[in-house]
């Protein structure tokens, strides 16, 4: 029984990730291939102020997808959500 639950949850997770990626591409008008260029850890918890900001919690691992012109980077969290995170809130060690 547990095997079927695992397969179902993986399928649901995959579908959610695809939905998040589609939302990201539309919102950010991002047409490049999504590559992880670095990983970082959130230094502190930061709520999102705008729809395009990624809310992070202290200690959360993030994939850095792209560097922007300002002091923010585009990151992806473990749930597959994308958004801007200020560099000052990240630890790249």
From TrEMBL:
Compartment list: Membrane raft
A single Gene Ontology CC term: plasma membrane
Alphabetized InterPro entries for the sequence: FYB1/2-like (IPR043443), hSH3 (IPR029294), SH3-like_dom_sf (IPR036028)
SUPFAM superfamilies: SH3-domain (SSF50044)
UniProt superkingdom: Eukaryota
Keywords: Membrane, Phosphoprotein, SH3 domain
Keyword Phosphoprotein listed: yes
Helically-extended SH3 domain: residues covered: 24-90
GO biological process, one term: protein localization to plasma membrane
Subunit organization: Interacts with SKAP1, LCK and FYN. The phosphorylated form interacts with LCP2.
Function: Adapter protein that plays a role in T-cell receptor (TCR)-mediated activation of signaling pathways. Required for T-cell activation and integrin-mediated T-cell adhesion in response to TCR stimulation.
Protein name, UniProt field: FYN-binding protein 2
Natural source organism: Anhinga rufa (African darter)
């Amino acid at each position: 029984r547990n095997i079927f639950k695992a397969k179902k949850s993986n399928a649901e997770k995959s579908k959610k990730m695809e939905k998040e990626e589609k939302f990201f591409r539309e919102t950010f008008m991002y047409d490049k291939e999504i590559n992880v260029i670095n990983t970082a850890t959130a230094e502190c918890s930061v709520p999102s102020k705008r729809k395009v900001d990624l809310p992070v919690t202290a200690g959360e691992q993030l994939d850095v997808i792209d560097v922007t012109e300002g002091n923010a980077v585009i990151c992806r969290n473990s749930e597959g959500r994308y958004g801007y995170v200020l560099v000052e809130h990240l630890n790249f060690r």
